[in-house]
Amino acid sequence: MPYVNIKVTGGAEAPTAKQKEELIEGVTHLLQKVLNKNPETTVVIIDEVDMDNWGIRGKTVTSRRSMK
Fold this sequence. Notes:
It is a single chain. By secondary structure, this protein is of the alpha+beta class. It has helices at 17-35, 61-66, and strands at residues 3-9, 43-49, 55-56, 59-60. The termini are far apart.
C-alpha cells in the first residue's frame, strides 16, 4: 500500500479543492505507471501548512513573501 504525503502552504495561496483532486489523481496514476502499484490501495494525503510554520533560508514563508 503506497502512502504519499504532499505538504503545501495554506492560506490565500493554498491549492483549490480541484487542484487537490488533480494532485491525488496524478500521483496515484504515476505510482501505477512507474511502480505498477494498485490504485485501489494507494493513499495520498495533502497537508496544508500555515505559512508561519514553514521556513526557507531562515525565514518563514510569510516573511519571505512580504519582502517581495
